[in-house]
Amino acid sequence: MKKIKLLYISGYSNLWAKNANLTNVLYMTDALSQRCKYAKLVLFVPLKQLGNIKGHLKKIDPELDVDVLSIPYINIKGIYLLFDLISVSISIWYSLKGYTIYTRNCRFARFFYFFRSSINIEIHDFSASTKKCVSICRKSNFFVISNSLKKELHRNAAGRRSVLLPDAAKLSASEFLPEYKDDIVYVGSDNPGKGVRQISRLAEVMPHRRFIVVGHVKDKFERNNVIFLGHRQKAFVAAILRSARLLIAPYEKKVGDNAGNDITKYMSPLKLFEYMASEKPFIISRSEFSEEIVTEDVHCLMAEAENIEEWVHKIDLMYESQDLSEQLARNAFRLYNEFYTWEKRALTVLNQI
Q: Could you give all domains of the chain from N- to C-terminal order, each with its CATH number?
């Protein structure tokens, strides 16, 4: 593996972003770099961070070690197209130097394919842009994050080379936060269907429980037993996950991404893998994507997406049975450690390349 030189073209996140896209590309590049001769990441970087990229990476997670080739980010019309065109130029140059190109940017992939067909593409949805990419990039390797997405790929484009590549997680070193040891914690955004609206309903009917919400939430609601901590860096997220009494992922029946795409069928949520890595018990909505990764009553408890009564029952059960909570947490961590680390994910990609 050490002979491989790899250039990773990111999507449109920038180094100041507060989303799962940035987490994915940073940790994936970090894991790839441990097994490649060289692994470089092409990424948007805001102007004020250009002189201190390494410093900002350390703020995100002190353990990150990523070689970033920066494209300056300015919030102007056409900046994403410019990113793709610059990335094509960079990729042509690096491919002449023997680098393999890997990307999760479907429009860039379509452009670059006309220069070189040996490209590796990670897809997270089946939007119009992804469909065009699959149609054009016939000889590429496709890495898909869920079985549902893999089936969709082959329904629309039979014969494409595809590899299942679920997301992963890594929790950085952290301290124990005793002030959250009895709390129910949710980590994520308030994108449609991600679960924040459900937390409002749960908090109303469970005033004796305290709910902690960590992540970028624009529309906060007033409840005495809900605390919004906002976006936090990875070390704090790791600390609060490991400190909490219970973790929840109350997804609704329909889930959307940052761009408004319906991703309900195709999800492989980073939150789920972070919960598994925390060695803490969790409850997640019963769905196709959750059942693809974890088994109900073995690794976690599940509840119907919008059945508040069932959620209340499962939460009470976790608090009442310490033995059950600990057993589920151990099983989930064992599953995570065997299959869902970034190192295992990177090895899957490199073996295919």
A: 5-165 (3.40.50.2000), 178-339 (3.40.50.2000)
The answer to whether the Cα torsion of 128, 130, 131, 136 is positive or negative is positive
Distance (Å, rounded) from C-alpha 166 to C-alpha 178?
A: 33
- 6's CB contacts (< 8 A; 6+ apart) are 32, 36, 38, 39, 40, 99, 100, 101, 102, 353
- Please spell the DSSP secondary structure of 43-95, one letter per residue: EEEEGGGGGGHHHHHHHH-TT---EEEEEEE---TTHHHHHHHHHHHHHHHHH
Determine contact, residues 269/285, Cβ cutoff 8 Å.
no
Q: Mean pLDDT throughout 240-247?
A: 98
Contact status, residue 226 vs residue 198, Cβ threshold 8 Å: no
What is the 3-state secondary structure of 118-173?
Answer: CEEEEECCCCHHHHHHHHHCCCCEEEECCHHHHHHHHHHCCCCEEEECCCCECCCC
What residue has token string 């690096």?
94
pLDDT band, very low/low/confident/very high, at 14 (cuts 50, 70, 90): very high
pTM over cut 0.70: yes
Residue appearing with tokens 């390349």 = 353
Q: Are 243 and 211 in contact (CB under 8 A)?
A: no
| DSSP for residue 98 | T
Condensed to tens digits (0 to 9), the pLDDT of residues 166-178 reads: 999 999 888 999 9
d(CA 266, CA 147): 8
SS3 180: helix
Question: What backbone phi and psi angles, to 5 degrees, belong to 198?
Answer: -65, -35
Cα distances from 69 to residues 53, 76, 260, 320, in angstroms, run 10, 20, 29, 51
pLDDT of residue 260: 66
Which residues have C-beta within 8 Å of that of residue 313, sequence separation ≥ 6? 303
Residue with tokens 């009442």: 320
Consecutive H or E run containing 197:
helix 196-205
